[in-house]
Specification:
Blueprint: E1 4-7, H1 10-21, E2 26-28, E3 35-39, H2 43-53, E4 62-64, E5 75-76, H3 80-89, E6 94-100, E7 114-118, H4 123-132, E8 136-137, H5 152-159, E9 165-168, E10 179-182, E11 189-192, H6 198-205, E12 209-210, E13 234-238, H7 243-255, E14 260-264, H8 266-272, E15 277-279, H9 284-301, E16 304-308, H10 316-328
Parallel strand pairs: 1-9, 2-9, 4-7, 6-10, 11-12, 13-16, 14-15, 14-16
Antiparallel strand pairs: 2-3, 3-8, 4-8, 5-6, 6-7, 10-11
Helix pairs in contact: 1-4, 9-10
Length: 332
């Protein structure tokens, strides 16, 4: 199978519609990462997405719809706080989990009685979803557990010859996956942290919990289980307070003949004054936007990435830390 990378225009949208309505999968841009989309009503198409990615079949998918799609076709019992959050932050990098009507394939939610729904803000994604006018089940468009893709080229590197089409919408501005919010209870609860922070949710909803998964519990959201976002090289993760230890580890590994790089934000890189650095940038938004690109760059140039956690841990950095820990297989 030949894989094409095409800009999002009338011709590529028509091709995407043909592929998806015939049960295939298409990669498309969002403001967070690129998604691998299939018709959420078609069980065989959804199961094929799991197969293409090599994704465990107990790891649920998110359904993507355009901003004017009638959600009452898919879910019910939408609480007042959820509507307020939707008004405040959608379209945007927020996935909301509701009670499912069972309209889409049960393969989407892996048999759960809930459905995760997202309305992406990326123009290319909205154009595709409006052109299709159906719910699209879409995880990130990469091989399972590998670093998520933030460019069309990243998708191609992972999925060439596995899918027919990658819609190219440029680099993703957000850089980490959407916040996933459980909206089935009396208050919203974060299942996966992201660009819409706990503070932002609390400001609108009045309160917001953070779910802590228990050992052996069934997965309720993407990104809650398994090692994720991992580059194809060794990794180590150091807390910010141990940044000097990270520098010593770089020196030790380099002396032993290992091609090692430090990965950290710009301020930390200046403080440590290292040459072999994967610089994540200055601001919180820079760090989030650059994280996956730098992990992918690192696997191309390094045998070992020595990551240093950001000093700030709340807000957007909570989502960054979630990804860093999973990428490095760390419980830091």
């Amino acid at each position: 199978m030949q894989t094409q990378i095409l800009p999002v225009d009338g011709q590529s949208l028509e091709l995407a519609k043909k592929i998806i309505t015939n049960g295939g999968a298409v990669a498309f841009p969002t403001e967070t990462v690129y998604g691998l989309g299939a018709n959420a009503f078609n069980t065989a198409a959804v199961e094929n997405v799991f197969k293409i990615k090599g994704r465990p079949n107990d790891n649920p998918l998110i359904v993507h719809v355009h901003k004017d799609y009638d959600l009452s076709k898919l879910v019910y019992d939408v609480p007042e706080y959820a509507q307020k959050l939707a008004n405040a932050y959608l379209p945007g990098p927020l996935t909301m989990v509701y009670k499912s009507l069972g309209a889409v394939s049960s393969a989407v939610s892996c048999g759960l009685e809930t459905l995760a729904v997202r309305i992406p803000s990326h123009t290319g994604a909205q154009n595709l979803l409006r052109y299709l006018d159906l719910p699209v089940a879409a995880p990130s468009a990469n091989i399972s557990k590998h670093v998520s893709p933030t460019t069309a080229r990243h998708v191609y590197e992972d999925l060439k010859c596995k899918i027919e089409l990658v819609l190219d919408g440029g680099s993703c501005a957000g850089g980490i996956e959407s916040t996933v919010l459980d909206c089935t209870g009396d208050k919203p609860v974060i299942l996966r942290s992201g660009l819409i922070t706990q503070e932002m949710i609390t400001a609108v909803a009045g309160e917001c919990g953070v779910y802590v998964p228990k050992d052996g519990e069934r997965v309720r959201s993407p990104g809650m289980k398994y090692k994720h976002y991992a580059p194809a090289c060794r990794t180590e993760l150091f807390a910010y307070c141990f940044k000097e230890d990270a520098l010593e580890e770089l020196k030790r590994q380099t002396a032993a003949g290992v091609n090692a790089f430090i990965m950290c934000d710009s301020a930390t890189a200046r403080l440590l004054n290292v040459d072999k650095v994967l610089d994540l940038g200055e601001t919180e938004n820079d760090i989030a936007a650059n994280l996956y690109a730098k992990l992918r760059e690192g696997e191309q140039v390094a045998e070992l990435i020595i990551a240093i956690a950001p000093e700030k841990q709340d807000g957007v950095m909570s989502g960054v830390m979630n990804r860093l820990k999973k990428a490095c297989g760390s419980k830091l």
